[in-house]
């Protein structure tokens, strides 16, 4: 109930690692996702973009400037160009003493921390993880490509047997987007794949908790939830679930639990699981 007490561990809510355990390791790297799996995250969030030669890679920004030592838009670079860049050294290890030292060769670069990550490699990591880990995949700038991002995504998901989940079982993959058109394309090709409509602001159209046709999960930013605390209950009454991003502060975790949200997307899965009494 929206007015209920905050009681860690009472309400099951999924903890989703935003760009991996991105507080501890460089976002969207294998190291960040391995850490999230080790930390016990229920799901992994990733953004996908198409390279000039048609590969889906996990990169948030349009350009690689912030998260690598290169420059330029992902869409103008080929996978081989991205593979030559360092996607990890911009971020110092959270704690030098505890930094993961996965490379047996001391001093050698840790490729898990520095290499560009393809969606294909991330799907392999999840399928080899030995436990159920869900994936929340966000299509970035999908309109630019007139359907190619979704097309490639579905080819890849089909190859891993993930595009057509049985309708009566929870799907291990969901597709998220700020673009209703992108979600529509996904549903047209894979009707049983759950979709999440991301919202930075709560427009008048969706205030009553409804979503674009066929979408079953609302993805409001934490500010939407803070500013419209009734929204979660309204979405639930409309038959939709609510996955909130990006929830890093303990008081926001508490608010989400109190309001009964269904998933928290966070840069700090370990800390959130601890707060929820699950670690
Ligand atoms: O999980 C949704 C959230 O990631 C959307 O915002 O900018 O971090 O992709 P952004
Ligand atoms: Ca995202």
From TrEMBL:
Residues 99-114 have a biased composition (Basic and acidic residues). Residues 13-276 form the GP-PDE domain. GO terms for biological process: lipid metabolic process. This is Glycerophosphoryl diester phosphodiesterase. InterPro entries: GP_PDE_dom (IPR030395), PLC-like_Pdiesterase_TIM-brl (IPR017946). Transmembrane segments: none annotated. It comes from the Bacteria. CDD domains: GDPD_like_2 (cd08582). Residues 94-114 are annotated as: Disordered. GO terms for molecular function: phosphoric diester hydrolase activity.
């Amino acid at each position: 109930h929206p007015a209920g007490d905050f009681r860690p561990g009472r309400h099951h809510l999924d903890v989703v690692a935003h760009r991996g355990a991105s507080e501890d390791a460089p976002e969207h790297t294998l190291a960040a996702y391995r850490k999230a799996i080790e930390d016990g995250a229920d799901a992994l969030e990733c953004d996908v973009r198409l390279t000039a030669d048609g590969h889906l890679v996990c990169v948030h920004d349009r350009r690689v400037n912030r998260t690598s030592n290169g420059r330029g838009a992902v869409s103008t670079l080929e996978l081989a160009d991205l593979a030559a860049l360092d996607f990890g050294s911009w971020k110092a290890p959270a704690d030098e003493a505890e930094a993961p030292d996965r490379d047996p060769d001391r001093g050698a670069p840790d490729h898990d921390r520095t290499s560009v990550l393809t969606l294909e490699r991330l799907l392999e990591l999840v399928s080899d993880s030995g436990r159920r880990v869900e994936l929340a995949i966000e299509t970035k700038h999908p309109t630019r490509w007139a359907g190619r991002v979704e097309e490639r995504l579905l080819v890849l998901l089909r190859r891993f047997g993930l595009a057509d989940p049985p309708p009566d079982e929870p799907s291990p993959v969901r597709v998220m987007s700020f673009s209703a058109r992108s979600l529509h394309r996904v549903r047209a090709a894979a009707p049983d794949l759950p979709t999440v409509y991301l919202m930075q602001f709560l427009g008048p159209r969706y205030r009553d908790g409804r979503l674009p046709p066929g979408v079953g999960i609302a993805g409001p930013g934490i500010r939407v939830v803070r500013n419209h605390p009734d929204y979660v209950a309204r979405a639930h009454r409309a038959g939709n679930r609510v996955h909130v991003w990006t929830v890093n502060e303990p008081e926001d975790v508490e608010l989400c639990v109190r309001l009964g949200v269904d998933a928290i997307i966070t840069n700090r899965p370990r800390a959130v699981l601890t707060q929820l009494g699950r670690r």
